[in-house]
Amino acid sequence: MTTTAIGQRIPKLDAPDKATGRATYGHDVRLPGMMHGAILYSRHPHARVAQIDTSRAAQLRGVTCVLTAADNPSTKFGYGKDNTPFKSENVRSLRDEIAGVVAIDADTAEEALRLIKVEYEELTAIFSPEQALAEGAPLIHPEHGSNHFNSYNYSHGDIVAGEAESEVVVEASFDLPYVTHACMETSVIVAQFDHHDKLTMWSTTQIPFLLQRDLSEALGIPGSHIRIIQTAIGGAFGRELDIYPYHPIAALMARKAGKPVRLAFSRHEEFIAGPVRQPCSVSVRAGARADGQLTFRDVRAQLDIGAYVSWGVVTPLVMMETSASLYSVPHVRFRADNIYTNNPVTGAMRGYGNPQSTFFIETVMDQLAEQLDMDQADFRARNANQPNTETPQGLIITSCGLRECIEAVAVRADSFALSVNEGGYPASAGVPHDGGGSRPELKRGIGFACTLNVGGGARIYRSDGCGATVKVDDFGHVSLITGSTEIGQGSETVLAQIVATVLGVDVNDVRVLNSDTDVKPWDVGVHASRTTFIAGNAAHIAAMQARSQLFDTAAGMLEAAPEALEALGGEIIDTESGKTVSLAKVVRARHFREGGEVVLGEGWYDPPTKLVDKDTYKGNISAAYGFGAQMAEVEVDTETGKVNVLRLACANDVGLAINPMAVEGQIEGGAQMGLGYALTEELLVEEGRVLNPDFLDYRLFTSADMPRIETIIVETDDPQGPFGAKGVGEMGGTPTAAAIANAIYDAVGVRLTELPMTPERVLAALDKRTIPDDNFPYQ
Amino acid sequence: MAKILVSLSVNGDPHELYLDTRRTLLDVLRDELGLLGTHRGCDAGDCGACTVHVDGLPMTSCLLLAADYHGAQITTVEGVLDDGKPNSLQQALVEKGGIQCGFCTPGFVMNGLALLSEKPRPTEAETRAWLSGNLCRCTGYVKIVDAVMTAARQSP
């Protein structure tokens, strides 16, 4: 008899409420007496604020109060300690917050913003890293002394020796765009102070405990006076991985107004004032021996981080990991520079550097295979990471299914002639691969790309830990109180599956409580694909402890040895006598007696990893690594430049799929983001201004645009993961752009090194092609 | 700002509302009637999260001025339960994994029901085309489309 919930396609526990409109999102929080806040942003990307006149706004009927930099606490906040809630003296980007209004409703607040008069003295603005680093460039943060924020320098082996061993050497330069999370729910906060001057903030944050600390710093109040309550979260993808000015602004508004204040972004505001992924320019040189063995990689990247520093500046650490450790490469040099500009402020976004680095590394891999005249899949498999190895960077790779992933998608590539015209996927003229038939302008190709991603946490903070508590009540109902956060990915359900399996109860008998910092134990946050592994292990430890308490008591009740007991079907069973007793009865027996005890298991899991060395950046940052491979099949219209993706096969090594349906969901959703990064998504920024701040002009893939997606789950039973599982949250979209770029090359023989690969860019690349169409070997 | 008296039937309940003429139907549903299942994703008709049925047709409520719909029959996601339980499309979305963050879900439910009422047996291509006005950032639409097709198969 088995009742394990592990490996089952269990629907998300929160799904029925979401399907029926009952879930409470941030935008749904309504408090008695709640007022509405609004923010005035700068008109200029770089200017001195000469004067602000808020008098007319303050007098508008319905306005409670107006705030400016005069209301700022004295401290700066943020990863670079370079930010303040409202800006005084200088504004450094068009999203710089100048003033705020609290009013009786959102319309009145907006009207009041228009009554605020600001006089600016424009300063020379900087819109590219090149301008920022030029001699005599104005300093965006004079106290920093330079527009160069920091560098990441890494090397292993010897680049010169590596190049000397190379049969082929390729080089390429890449330009990667601004993209944004485009969460379906815009940013929103509700803040309220009580009469003890304690703050409660309803938030969609991914980092409730770090936000407590950050807010304490930003507001100058003790962290113990800050309670974060997380609502249902309508998408996050890294957007909520940091403190941004609107967090302390909401709190300052609530304090000044003496009332709860709601601060909700419009979609336009979300596009212009939300964090975005760093654009970057990259040059790569790489080589391989005649037998296909990789020899060296030399990567140089420059990131435009915008006007303020966020945790997003740490993304080069992930780019470095891909550059140094995706495949076995004996000689690697990597350098990345983070540069301040007056462009939009950047932040963390799903993949955290990896979609960027996987695009350039996997494009170069394709070039190398081509130069060596080797099969693309064989070349990758030959160089693939292996289980139970340590990379020169110090990543300790235990379970590893990269080779299996490559083989899985390569098999799909072989069934190339598969008809793709059914199912409403992008229209294909059904032409054969050779471009013959009635539409000779349509060319098809296939491309591969792989990915390496942290899958067992990522220690970028002193602790990578998570706490959990498991309580069993006298009805046999189980509560898991976890530090981790549900952002839609399904972590509540996966954690409930783990606890249910340990305690032998149905998943629906487990309630997951995870939304209140006053209740839940600490966790570093939901990021780096870490929740299943880290919070899963913590929940497992807590559940095991609760189970052993139950077994202690049940052993006496059943006159059995604790070792002979099993928990199944809501009962504890003596496997020797066959006698059983319900969990509820055991709990009552513990409670309702003299000297009684609760059933309360606790768990804390912090993986056996370390912060990378601060000088060499070497070290084992994660307790496990996830791997994946994708194969894209595309059709390029050589007359219009339009690229249709016909199929995307995605294989991922997830250790073990605790919930295969949830794993597929992560991969399929990641692919949607990866497809957008590859082909349609770009925030157009000109002189610091976002030109396309709406969904009409910032194009997400729709249901009609999506290719057929096939997900293949590869299981490698990770030795340290809960039931063998590893993280999967970010891998789905990481290799997609590279796989599509490589497929375009296969189809029409041009390398696109700029994203997104729009029809204009594809056509321009085709126009530069010197070989006449008829003779081109890749048709 | 002018206010006028507007009668709306929402999920079968009659409402007499004295409304600012600038208020959208979405504003009224959320802020006057407390029907928070209809979500504001863009306020521009681009994302579909606010889709409701107006006299039986799926419409993005952020683009409609409520005062223009005096006498209309409005149905929101709260009004499509089947005997108090999730209807077959809602149930399929739950069981097939078509819901992650869930913010877009009410819009997909309302637009999906409209599809099934117009075309009880849609092809996958028709389903994908019909739902293309609803954006989702979590699922890649794979399991949403699967859920709609499943609900279509299950209906009598």
Summarize the entry for a quick read.
Chain A is built from 18 helices and 30 strands.
Helix-strand layout with pairing:
The complex is a heterodimer of chains A (779) and B (156).
Chain A: H1 15-19, E1 35-41, E2 47-53, H2 55-59, E3 63-68, E4 90-91, E5 97-103, H3 106-114, E6 117-122, H4 129-133, E7 148-156, H5 159-164, E8 168-176, E9 188-193, E10 199-203, H6 208-219, E11 226-230, H7 246-257, E12 261-264, H8 267-273, E13 280-288, E14 294-306, H9 315-325, E15 331-340, H10 354-372, H11 376-383, E16 389-390, E17 396-397, H12 402-414, E18 442-454, E19 466-472, E20 478-482, H13 491-503, E21 510-513, H14 531-558, E22 565-568, E23 571-574, E24 580-582, H15 583-591, E25 600-605, E26 625-637, E27 643-655, H16 660-680, E28 685-686, E29 689-690, E30 708-715, H17 736-748, H18 759-768
Chain B: E1 3-10, E2 13-20, H1 25-32, E3 51-54, E4 57-60, E5 73-75, H2 88-95, H3 105-118, H4 124-130, H5 142-154
Parallel strand pairs in B: 1-5
Antiparallel strand pairs in B: 1-2, 3-4, 3-5
Helix pairs in contact in B: 2-5, 3-5
Major sheet of chain A: 7 strands, mixed
What general form of chain B does the structure show? globular
Structural class of chain B: alpha+beta
Q: How much strand content do the residues of chain B show?
A: 15-25%
Strand arrangement, major sheet of chain A: 3-5-1-12-9-10-11
Tell me roughly what share of residues is in helical segments of chain B.
25-40%
Overall body shape of chain A: globular
Cα(first) to Cα(last) distance of chain B is 49 Å
CATH level-1 class of the domain at 31-123 and 195-236 and 240-265 in chain A: Alpha Beta
Largest sheet of chain B: 5 strands, mixed
- Strand percentage of chain A, roughly? 15-25%
Order of strands in the sheet with most strands of chain B = 2-1-5-3-4
Work out the oligomeric state of the chains in this entry. heterodimer
Relevant CATH superfamily of the largest domain in chain B: Beta-grasp domain
Low-confidence stretches of chain B: none
CATH homologous superfamily label of the domain at 31-123 and 195-236 and 240-265 in chain A: Aldehyde oxidase/xanthine dehydrogenase, a/b hammerhead
Total of DSSP H or I helical runs spanning 4+ residues of chain B: 5
User: What's the total helix number of chain A?
Assistant: 18
Mean pLDDT of chain A: 95
- Supply the CATH architecture of the largest domain in chain B: Roll
Largest interface, C-beta closer than 8 angstroms, per-chain residues: A-B, 61 and 57 residues
